[in-house]
Design brief:
Rossmann fold, about 40% helix, elongated, seven-stranded mixed β-sheet, alpha/beta, about 180 residues
Amino acid sequence: MTGWVVTFLVLAGVLFAVKMTYALSVAFALPVTRGALYVSTPRKRIEAFADAVVIKPGKVLVDLGCGDGRVLRCIRRRFGAQAIGYELNLLAYLKARLLCIGRRGISVRFRDFWKADLSDADVIFCYLFPDVLPDLSTKLGRELKPGTVVVSANFAIPGWHPEKVQRIDHRPYSDPFYIYRMS
């Protein structure tokens, strides 16, 4: 076989393996995520979130469905807060773990946040579909201590009244995020 044929077959095989891994990652997480896919939060939105919610060093941020860990890395870098992320999509989890290697104070967990105890969180960040927010409201209401800040990107938590609704004055990132404080 000629060199270009071997190169083509290797590249095609690698691409096929990546696509299959992605498909299996999505299929594995689908029953829990209820159809939510891994989509990276734009950096401009993360920076606006960090500007709006100042977190003191040593406090605990929990990102529910942390994707590639962008929020975790930003908050740890800016505030020195402990950052914990939960992710069920295998590829997103592996990417987050890889990007967080050597960064103290960041923990990425391949675990279902619905089964986690979130009571130690000082700030919760989530970018979840509206259909899971009623159940999340119940979970957070049971587990979080007074004063805990909850930030929901794009979608309001039903029945909760935001302390603040933040928007970025920059398209296409102008979708709101809702900031709540547990009482």
